Predict the 3D structure of the following.
Amino acid sequence: MAENVPETDVIVVGAGPVGLFALFELGMLKLSAAIVDALAMPGGQCAALYPEKPIYDIPGYPVIQAGTLVEQLVRQAEPFRPQYHLGRQVTGLQRQADGRWLLETSQGERLLATAVVIAAGAGAFGPNRPPLPQIERYEGREDGTGVHYLVRRREDFRGKRLVIAGGGDSALDWAHSLADLAQRIYVVHRRAQFRAAPESVARLHAMAADPAGPVELVIPYQLAGLEGEDRRLQAVIVQTLEGQARRLPADALLAFFGLSMNLGPIADWGLALEKQHIVVDPATCETSVPGIFAIGDIATYPRKLKLILSGFAEAAQAAHAIHPLCRPGEVLHWEYSTTKGVPAAAAAE
Ligand code: FAD
């Protein structure tokens, strides 16, 4: 048995929007929680990939920026005083003799809980990087030059010459969004057809048709190389399948080829998996291992919708299924939040 290890009722793995809302739902049932995330800040994909993008399908908010949604979720969970352990990956999970779970992080911490909620999204997610020689030389610059896989601050790209690569919604959304800031935008895609929403594709073609506008479509071309000096990007080389090349003068390459899903250590925890997702019973969000639950993007069941709002509902399902494990014999009387309010004990101080 682990001794002198911090204990909570529940450990949430992943502080994306869904893990954050789980803190609230658990708190409303008077269950204590700790949350662990590999990233240094809460918010998961919303914070790491698109903090300045507007989201339109959060109930009750006709539009809300992803970063603001994260701030609100953190605020909503605050009365329950969850313990945050950010900037560390969950590496190990072992069941103890008394049935509780001992979790280990990459920083060597150990945490103990009766139940575990995995809200790890795309796992230890990372962007799909185009296979260009020496691409890493141009990554990680904070001044809007070089190679980027997400836009943290639109302003960084003001006045820049950009190559946006990819044919999906992210590539097109950013081409639209940066068109009023950038000096020039080349949209490079290997096919003439885009995989984005039809209105978005129509809007892109309209922008590219304006000879005075900044947008040029470079299709069907794919990325072939990068040119620069002293780690400063100067041009992106693209070519057709037939090998016909073009040199696009550029300060930055924004490559949007999706996220690679990598469960990392979670894959070794003996949970039933399906295509890199954790199989759960949608009524409870319990996995194939009793006491371990999964919610949000990482969880799968028939007709699952990978949306933040589905993850919010799953957080509520899981919290209610976890309550009897943490408080055996205690009857949970059903109450709306309007009746219950935020529990006084938690809100006090
Ligand atoms: P995530 O947000 O992926 O968070 C999971 C967290 O778990 C991450 O922070 C990760 O670091 C952490 N983690 C993973 N493994 C470990 C580990 N072993 N140890 C510690 N931490 C770990 N959805 C919508 O509903 N509406 C939209 O309009 C919308 N727009 C989008 C636009 C873009 C550009 C993108 C990329 C996504 C969009 N989505 C949208 C999808 C939405 O962002 C996801 O559905 C949502 O983020 C899933 O939340 P989550 O909490 O399940 O996982």
Q: What stands out?
A: The pocket of flavin-adenine dinucleotide is lined by residues 13-19, 36-39, 44-46, 49-50, 55, 57, 89-90, 119-124, 170, 264-266, 296-297, 306-309, 311 (CB under 6 Å).
